[in-house]
Amino acid sequence: MPSTPVAPAAVSFQQVSKVYRSAGAELRALDRVTFDIAPGEFFGLLGPNGAGKTTLISILAGLAQASSGRVSVLGSDVVTDYAQARRKLGVVPQELVFDPFFTVREALRFQSGYFGIRGNDGWIDELLAGLGLSDKAGANMRQLSGGMKRRMLVAQALVHRPPVIVLDEPTAGVDVELRQTLWQFIAGLNRQGSTVLLTTHYLEEAEALCGRIAMLKQGRVIALERTSTLLKRASAKVLRFKTDQALPAALAAQARVTGRIVQLPLPDVAALERTLADLRAAGLQPEDIEISQADLEDVFLDLMRDAPDPNTARPAPAQPLEELA
Ligand SMILES: Nc1ncnc2c1ncn2[C@@H]1O[C@H](COP(=O)(O)OP(=O)(O)OP(=O)(O)O)[C@@H](O)[C@H]1O
Ligand SMILES: [Mg+2]
């Protein structure tokens, strides 16, 4: 029987490890990272500072070499088939780097030339409009504000219409309105079939945009799931209240505190009873108590806290809290 050809993954990471060595010390920045991103996915790569996100993206973009493992883009290996892989990728780097002597349009034409594309002004105009940079086309790169430079990095990454778009903190320092413009534009490209890999510390962005998410902690994948599944995780309910008083130590260790607002995870009904009893015992009088659905930030903080061994699965909840919400 003829076998059906299987379409290659948009991005494939297989057992990717990276060890940095400096001054005799070794740092394992990535530890056997393995996952695939399917064509057309909007995929989030999340993790705290230093988790290894940029290292993984640098290896994908051919800017750094893995110590071991394999990475490919739509079937092209990033080491043995570098030119093909690079052409299929548009990478928005985390660091702002520019040639200060070009204007915006010149830089985009130059970048097109790098990929052997001539007469690209139609698409360049579309990119500038989509990213709110049309009136800056003739401006020198030095004259752009920080947020405009970051949008320019996005335009540069997309100039050769890559099927796979990689964004490393694209909205750091970009104002709210332009963040929305940027997301509309990227979401539009995704609807037309582009694959998107995004890292961000704005978890509400990841929650809104990404269909699937990988979480990295100290170089290891500790979660790899659909966003909706992550949000339904065991302790995906929280107790929220306001207080000016200090929390008892046991609760403080698991609380997420924003000013006067305290949030505590509620894995099950027993935890709710226990928490309320602990608050009462500590003489604390919480105001505006409510039980609500945890957001991605709660799940993220939970996972990061509870993942000493990245390979251990979390236990199922004793009793779901659905009735209480
Ligand atoms: N060139 C390098 N030499 C040595 N160590 C490095 C190098 N680049 C990164 N590291 C280390 O590797 C680890 C992962 O760094 P990386 O930049 O990948 O993290 P990140 O997840 O992108 O963090 P952030 O959210 O802060 O951008 C960190 O401990 C960092 O100090
Ligand atoms: Mg980074």
From TrEMBL:
The keyword Membrane applies. Keywords: ATP-binding, Cell membrane, Membrane, Nucleotide-binding, Transport. PROSITE patterns: ABC_TRANSPORTER_1, ABC_TRANSPORTER_2. Gene3D superfamilies: P-loop containing nucleotide triphosphate hydrolases. Signal peptide: none annotated. It comes from the Bacteria. InterPro entries: AAA+_ATPase, ABC_transporter-like_ATP-bd, ABC_transporter-like_CS, ABC_transporter_ATP-binding, P-loop_NTPase. Residues 11-243 form the ABC transporter domain. GO terms for molecular function: ATP binding; ATP hydrolysis activity. The keyword Lipid biosynthesis does not apply. Residues 305-325 are annotated as: Disordered. This is ABC-type multidrug transport system, ATPase component.
